[in-house]
Amino acid sequence: MLNGLAANRPVFHSEADFQFALAWEIQKTLPNAQVRLESRLPRGADDEQVRGAEYIDIEIRSGLARTALELKYITKKWVGQFADEKFELKNHSALDQRRYDILKDLTRIERFVGVDGESRNGAVVVLTNDQALSSVPTRAWGESFDAAFRLHEGVFLSGALAWGAAASVGTTRGRVRQLELGGEYSMTWRAYADDPVSLKALVIEVDPE
Fold first, then answer.
1. Using CA atoms, how far apart are residues 5 and 76, in angstroms rounded to an integer?
2. Does this model's pTM top 0.85?
């Protein structure tokens, strides 16, 4: 789906723009599927610790099959043009928090896939023009308070993920909870589109196995 999307939309104004464009591409490719935005995440038997309703960015329903996608569009400042359209990308910064949020989305997809009674899979899809997110950090691994949440090329993640002791209250506010991954994941980045802003893509897939 991303290859087809990149041909016409190599850059997006915002995460909401990315969400709508990808949903439209999916619907064109799978015309008989039901594509839904912001569908409510069903609760499983082990979700008592989760408070409040949670929602999936994109849900695809085809027969008994269900696929959930969580999206992240993380950018550094860029102003430019594609075709006849001007783009002004925000500088999201705070990549330590952005990494946590990506992996929190991954735990949400795991819970979606783990609901009994249907054939389910899903993925977290990240697009970024910030090379600091996908590149090996210059700071030594042991010196990083967000080492557990690093997502650069080749990283392997599993099990419990928590902030280091040096993480500030400001960094962890609203993100204190330790994340628990049920699966094992290797981070592999690839080019999404070279022009005009050189976005890279990370797709973290979750299968029932």
1. 21
2. yes
